Amino acid sequence: MRYYDHLIFHYSKPGRCGYTLPKAAAPEVSTAVPEGLRRTSAPALPEVSEVDVVRHYTNLSQMNFGVDTGFYPLGSCTMKYNPKINEEIAALPAFAAIHPLQPVATVQGVQAVYRGMEQMLSAITGMAYFTFNPCAGAHGELTGLMIMRAYHRSRGDIARTKVIVPDSAHGTNPASAAVCGLDVVVVKSNADGLVDVEDLKPLLGPDLAGIMMTNPNTLGLFERDIKQIAALVHEAGGLLYYDGANMNPLIGKVRPGDMGFDIMHLNLHKSFSTPHGGGGPGSGPVGVAAFLKDCLPYPHTDVQPHDDLCLVTPAKTAGRVSAHMGNFGVILRAYAWLLTIGRQHVREVGPIATLNANYVKELLRDAYKLPIPSVCKHEFVFDGLINDGSREGKEGATTLDVAKRLLDFGFHAPTIYFPLLFHQALMIEPTETESKETLDAFISIMHRIAAEAAEDPDILHAAPHACPISRPDDTTAAKHPVINWSDLQAE
User: Fold this and answer.
1) What is the mean pLDDT of residues 393-399?
2) pLDDT tens per residue across span 432-449
3) Where are the domains of the chain?
4) H-run or E-run covering 329
5) What is the CATH topology of the domain spanning 84-341?
6) Which strands form 425-428's sheet, in the order they lie side by side?
7) Which of 220, 342, 352, 362 could form a disulfide with 379 if both were Cys (CB 3.0 to 4.6 A apart)?
8) Does domain 348-476 correspond to CATH entry 3.40.50.10800?
9) 84: Cβ–Cβ under 8 A, 6 or more apart, which residues?
10) Burial of 125 (0-12, 13-18, 19+ CB in 10 A)
C-alpha cells in the first residue's frame, strides 16, 4: 500500500499506544449517565504510536492543495494569500483566551476592534454601519435579506415579498432569498453579459422587496447601468442588495454605497485575506445605509455617552443571527490586514487584481473561447477550448478534462461549469497576490494543455496522472458514502 491508501486504522496494533494518562480517580461509569446510553464495550479506536500518528497526518496534510502550496485561480472565490502576521496577531493570548460570555466591560479592546473594523469597512464600501454577526457569505446574504424584510415590515409594507436576481448570479442568492421566505424572480442578461434593463422594468412593482446584484458580476464585468438600475428599483420602493463576493477589484476604487446599494455583505475570507476553505470558519459582515441602522441584528456594538463601548439591540432589529458576534478570530485577521496595508496601499488591491486577470485572459484567448471579449475586472470566463481535438470517432476534451490536467502540473483548477450562461464555463481569478512569474507559468501550462487537447485529447481524458486520487465516482460517493472503518472492512 502507498501511504495515501492507508487509514489510521491500518497502523493499529493491539496494546500499542503513544501516550499514557494517569488512571482517573472518578468511577469508570458515572451513575449520572442513563444506563441505556452507556457503552457495553470499549469504542473501536485505533491503537497507534505517536510517530505513526504524526507521519500519517503529516502525509495526509501534504495531499491537500492550498494557497500556501500553489496557485489557486478559483473564479468567484478570491483565493488570495493569507499573511502570517495576521495569524500571529489572532493567536495573541489577550485575544485568543477571551470568552464570548465575558461582561462587555472586560473586553473593551475586543469591542474596539469591532468598532474600528466597522469604521474601516464603512469607509471602503460607502455603507454607514456594519454587523459582524454573520459567520459566512451566504449567512451574510440571509442576514441582509432579513434586514430588508424587517425594514419593509417596520413601515407596514408587508406585500413586498419579491426579490429580483440576475440569471448570472451566484447560486446562493436565490437560495438565501428562498430561505428568507421571499419570492425569487430572474432578470435576464443582455448580449454583453450585463443586466438587461428593459427586461428589468416589467418586473418592478408594489410587491418588490429588492434586487440582489454583484458588481462586477459573475462574468467579471462591471454593470455599467447600475445607477439607472438603482434609480428604477428605488423609485419602485425596493432596496438594492450587494453581494460582496466580487468586491476584490473594487477595494479602494469604487464603493457600492456610491452606486446606490442599501445593503451589502463582505466575505472577509475572500476580499480581506483571511483563511478560506476547509469548511471555515468564515465571516460575512453586513453593511447598511444609515436609514437601516435600526434594523441591524443584535447584539450590535455602539458608543455610550462616556465613550465606553456597549452592546445594544436596535429598535427594529431583524433578530439574532448567531450565538454571539460572529467569528472574532477571522474578523481580527482582516483587521490586521487592513492596518498592515494601510489607506495608501488598499487602493492598489483592486487595480492589480484587475490587471492580473486581464493579463491572463489576453494571453490565453488564442487557445480558449472567450464569449465576451470586453475588459474584465478580477475574473473572466472562457467557454472551453477553441480546438478540443474532437473529430470523427474522437471525443474532444472538455472543461472538466482541462481542470483535471492542471492538477498534474501543480495548479489548482479554476471554477468550472459556472456561471451557467456557458456550456463549458472555465472561470479564472488570479488575485493581486500572484506574481507575474506565477501567472506566466500558469499561462504556459494552459497553452500546453490546449495543444494536448488538439493533438491527443485522451491525455486529458485520463488526467490527472500524478495525483493520489484520479477521478472518483462523485455520484456513488454522495449517495453511498463510506464514512467509518467498519463500513470499509465490510467491503
Assistant:
1) 93
2) 999 999 999 999 999 999
3) 3-32+43-61, 84-341, 348-476
4) helix 328-364
5) Aspartate Aminotransferase; domain 2 (3.40.640)
6) 380-383, 425-428, 415-416
7) 220
8) no
9) none
10) buried
